[in-house]
């Protein structure tokens, strides 16, 4: 038996399967071109563009993908993802591929879904194949065959790569994060609004790959106290934990628990790129208000092995959040522990209890390091200077600097709903108002941590949780939220998805689902309940109302939203509206991620350039009133109706 790392040679073509996220089991030659002298010249000059018939192709291959956990005791029926490379035997000839053992994906491919390709060297960027693919089903309706053709490149040494959809591998992630770190490291930190960025390995996967967690905030309200090393986590001893933050809630976002759902990585990248932009006012405001905890890849083993849905032992990791095992589900174990840690505002659970500063119960003190102490080990030199000059400044200096930096900012009062009221766009308190500064004493000097307007407080240290996914059957970009018995909690849950539809043209609010059934439905394929998904389990663990799954269709949507102008752009600014839903690309997914930023700010009226005043709702209060009216009058049919019945083979990408 050939080594699976070796290329497969068939019909003079070389098929590559020895790279991260690749998935190819075997290849069979179906058709060889005729070699008569009469047909030789014609074959060389034949074009695939004229016909999709078999007569128009020179070569034809049957290609088998691997099941998830192929060839092991954990092998299962998931076989939708494919990704392989081909080096042709001759240039500019027409080749047909039949991917013959896929899961049934009739709905997706009947709606215009196309695989993607790139050529190295030559066509370096992924794009959809140019000829529409065809598909067939066997008599049992189980095995799905996808067929497509292509013309081999002029360069005989070029390798063409094909994939089910736009790939983003484990190695792609590691290279991407290194580039982000290098870009941030070049910057000189000059003020408290600069980007605080920290990357660390939270845990290793079953096969020893990193599960990274990224911390992003500003230097406002930063302490000199580092987060705890939770038991059985943070294996890289040379990587320090990030600093704790004072009175800043955590927003927790994760992606790629299902390895084939690559749109989630591009949404994640769009949000990450948005957050680290030091000049974007939306990002500046978000970093002032929140601490972001971002996990880019929850299932690195499944991604690296080219799986579609499962981990290396055939487990759907998005069903084990209620009680994950350190031994069997280490990445979900780590994610749940981190969520609990931030929910409890850095308080360790009993089994992890270690001596630490309890910020939740000791609100009037904050440990600092005396300015005379050596703090080279706390942060790199530039960060140290910032902690000394900005974060730990005298009260008078702080008030002076805040007046300059946040001039004309006012923080709206909090109404009875626990949300900032009114339509103001302010973010911070003025010096004369009550602020959230904390006096710190060190030697002869009294310092005050930099303070901004506080968000409404409740018991949880978390403000928002979103798990990012891809979706095969339902069109568009949408969210799943949890079900609540009362109107106020339901409206609070619906608010972020509704705001996303105002800030992004491809977000489908009418496709969102907030039903109780969608919290507990049983997967037909593996018999596991969505009660164990991140969205539902986080709500059960923390009581967090804003706990979501964000889903992106691989291909396209049903509609395009008309996006109102931002208030500072003026209501008469010409808006270029597209009425035909586009084919989704990484750029479309990244724009969804970037739209999360202003939508989160809109939740608390802290958006400095909101679209709400130019929308039909006019204000956040108007959006809430609309949602409550829809709830009371039972007009929100997509939220109350049960899920449509789906074939078990097509239900694989829900939540």
Descriptive report:
With 655 residues, the protein is an alpha+beta fold. The protein has helices spanning 37-44, 106-110, 170-185, 263-275, 281-289, 300-304, 330-343, 381-391, 395-405, 487-503, 517-520, 534-542, 586-602, 620-632, 637-640; strands at residues 8-10, 13-16, 26-31, 59-64, 83-87, 94-102, 116-120, 127-128, 134-137, 144-151, 159-163, 196-204, 210-217, 222-226, 243-245, 249-255, 290-295, 392-393, 439-442, 445-449, 462-471, 477-480, 547-553. Helix 4 packs across helix 13, helix 10 crosses helix 13 and helix 10 (487-503) crosses helix 14. The protein starts with 7 loop residues before the first strand and ends in a 15-residue tail after the last helix.
Secondary structure elements and their pairing?
Elements: E1 8-10, E2 13-16, E3 26-31, H1 37-44, E4 59-64, E5 83-87, E6 94-102, H2 106-110, E7 116-120, E8 127-128, E9 134-137, E10 144-151, E11 159-163, H3 170-185, E12 196-204, E13 210-217, E14 222-226, E15 243-245, E16 249-255, H4 263-275, H5 281-289, E17 290-295, H6 300-304, H7 330-343, H8 381-391, E18 392-393, H9 395-405, E19 439-442, E20 445-449, E21 462-471, E22 477-480, H10 487-503, H11 517-520, H12 534-542, E23 547-553, H13 586-602, H14 620-632, H15 637-640
Helix pairs in contact: 4-13, 5-13, 10-13, 10-14
